[in-house]
Amino acid sequence: MRKDRLEIPAKGFTHGAKFHADDVFTTAFLRILNPSFEVERGFEVPADYDGIVYDIGRGAFDHHQQDKEYRENGCPYAAFGLVWRAFGADFIGEEEAAQFDEHFIQPLDESDNTGCHNVLSQVIEEFNPGWDSEESYDSCFWKAVEVAEIILKNH
To answer: Per-residue pLDDT tens for 23-62?
Structure first.
């Protein structure tokens, strides 16, 4: 276990409305690490927020700034990759975490950053409500998170 291990947060904040694979899988992963993990979705991070903030807010786990981070191979990080980098090795070990990043997370991060085709990203985006749906984005988000949790646990 690494000496610089981060504490698993009790709550998180991510953006509201339309969601993508990076915020869905980040939420699913954090819920696996801490089953009581609670998430708030919105459009502005509260000034005094004391949980993990991802995919919004210009912090350590947001990839929307101009100086976003890239892996050594040139693949840009998205929220899931950034959170995985912080917690993945403690979860499954350094070597396995690197392999999982390369084969599972990087294609999702690449799709989120560039729009390139990725079937899993596309499937997660299909959970967003259609134009004629009466379902809320939040209820659809939680359905997608449930599926993402199953995928992560099985993988």
So the answer is: 999 999 999 999 999 999 999 999 999 999 998 887 778 7
Query: Encoding tokens for residue 87?
Result: 């917690």
Beta strands in the chain (DSSP E): 11-15, 38-42, 52-53
**Which two three-digit tokens encode residue 139?**
């209820």
Greatest pairwise CA separation for the chain in angstroms: 50
Q: Collapse the DSSP code of 123 into the 3-class scheme (helix H, G, I; strand E, B; otherwise coil) and give the result.
A: helix
In a domain, 5, yes or no: no
Q: Which amino acid is at 150?
A: I
User: Would residue 6 count as lying in a domain?
Assistant: no
Q: How many helices (H) and strands (E) does the chain have?
A: 6, 3
Q: Kindly state whether residue 3 falls inside one of the protein's structural domains.
A: no
Query: For the segment 82-124, what is each residue's pLDDT rounded down to a tens digit?
Result: 999 999 998 899 999 999 999 999 999 999 888 899 999 999 9
Q: How far apart are CA 108 and CA 81, in angstroms?
A: 9
Q: Give the C-alpha separation, 72 to 118, whole Å.
A: 21
Number of structural domains found in the chain: 1
